[in-house]
Amino acid sequence: xxxxxxxxxxxxVSLGETVTINCKSSQxxxxxxxxxxxxxxxxxxxxxxxxxxxxxxxxxxxGVPDRFSGSGSVTDFTxxxxxxxxxxxxxxxxxxYYLTPFTFGPGxxxxx
Amino acid sequence: xxxxxESGPGLxxxxxxxxxxxTVSGGSISNYYWNWVRQPAEKELEWLGRIYTNRKVVxxxxxxxxxxxxxxxxxxxxxVSLKLYSLSAADTAVYYCARSRDDVNVFDFWGQGxxxxxxx
Lengths: 112, 120
What we know:
The complex is a heterodimer of chains A (112) and B (120). Chain A has 112 residues and is mainly beta.
């Protein structure tokens, strides 16, 4: 199985700050034939299911604010939240869909 | 807007079988993957498997659960189902169903989840 790790485990930030969350995979998520990284990010708020925010490592899902951005390739990826808003307080998970079984990172909690 | 709703027993005894159903509304069940993902107590997410139906049914299971897991689909009812056998306390979790597309295997629509506790 592809193992996903995230750092940090959690972080405390202030409104308006920039947040950076890192995700690392145990093997490449870059598919050579289409040059796409099979990496997604989800946001989960308490009592709610995860919500897709980024796929193909850097493509924002429809309706996701542009303060969310994804970057990285191969095995190292980053989720950046600019100008953090109160509604961004959540746990963020990275997810690889390169190979089954699909796997998730352990999550990074963002709180004020 | 596609909506997914999981249903099933909240409490199951050890060694028994868990049966869950996901009812899909607002869209067709065909030509999409329907996944089951579980989450023990706000912890890590675990993908259990998926089922796809067009003219045939295709399933992919997580090898860690494959011997205890069966998924099925009822297109007439727009439902997908999961059966997990020989339950233990380790199967206590919130169980979600989630849709993914064939071209991008990410989970774009989720149900609200159903909490399952395994206890005698």
